[in-house]
Amino acid sequence: VVTLLGLPPVIGHRGAALVAPENTLASFRQAALLGARMVEFDVRLSADGRPVVFHDDTLDRTSNGSGPVAAASLAELKRLDAGGWFSPQFSGEAIPTLDEVLALCLDLGIAANIELKPERGREVETAETALACALRSWPPGIAPPLVSSFSRRCLAAAGRTAAAAWPRGLLVGRIPADWHGAANALGCHALHADQRRLSAPAVAQLRAAGLTVLAYTVNDPHRAERLWAMGVTSIFSDFPMVGQKN
Ligand code: G3P
Ligand code: MG
């Protein structure tokens, strides 16, 4: 039986994106130093089908490269600097592969939330490739990563892989009218919603249906307290020390 028990109140968003370049190994180390027990990161495929950890569709904002991530091979991505844009202190930080991030999480003893970010048309390939890679990296005895996506196709495909028993979360901005049916159909135990769209009655309704509710992105400690009081289990924070509640 899949369980989401054990989720911490604070999850490091892209590591600790406020104090280190998002989605780099430095960012995940920083999250662990701040006391985070779990980190969230974004996974997409390179041109040669390798799962890498990077948020945007394009390289421009958070690296010294340009153009679509999906148009660059892993070798090309590995030549880029994903830290210098944030601060010179981090220049030389690489774009990590999913393997590298999972190995670091295991090393640091922190849990992982793999957010699948597929290119349009590559939803099934992204889920299958990333989860096959994660299954090879993650030892069976350790609580498995939480797999989330805005893409329903991706989540459905995840449910057909050998990682089908890993917990899944449906990512949404506004809570969709069909949230209940969608979560059931996709085998999702959690709903990860934009914190600005959450109210006490909405959270109560989701929880009454048996869903665990997570909220992104919360960097204000007062808002974090409000959300926990509403029944939100975990918040994603760029500074995962919010509320000192790790
Ligand atoms: O997974 C929570 C949050 O990261 C979803 O939005 O755009 O930051 O990946 P985004
Ligand atoms: Mg994300």
Keywords:
30% helix, 9 strands, binds magnesium ion, 246 residues, eight-stranded parallel beta barrel, globular, binds SN-glycerol-3-phosphate, alpha/beta
Shape type: globular
Q: For the CA atoms, what is the radius of gyration?
A: 17 Å
pLDDT averaged over residues: 96
Q: Using DSSP, what is the number of strands?
A: 9
Query: Which stretches are low in confidence, meaning pLDDT under 50 for 5 or more residues running?
Result: none
Task: Report the end-to-end length measured between terminal Cα atoms.
Answer: 26 Å
Main beta-sheet strand count, sense and barrel state: 8 strands, parallel, barrel
* Spatial arrangement of strands, main beta sheet: 1-2-4-5-6-7-8-9
Broad structural category: alpha/beta
Task: Give the count of helical stretches.
Answer: 8
Write out the distinct hetero groups bound to the structure. Answer: SN-glycerol-3-phosphate, magnesium ion
- Report the helical percentage: 25-40%
| Order of SSEs | EHEEHHEHEHEHEHEHE
Q: What portion of residues belong to β-strands? A: 15-25%
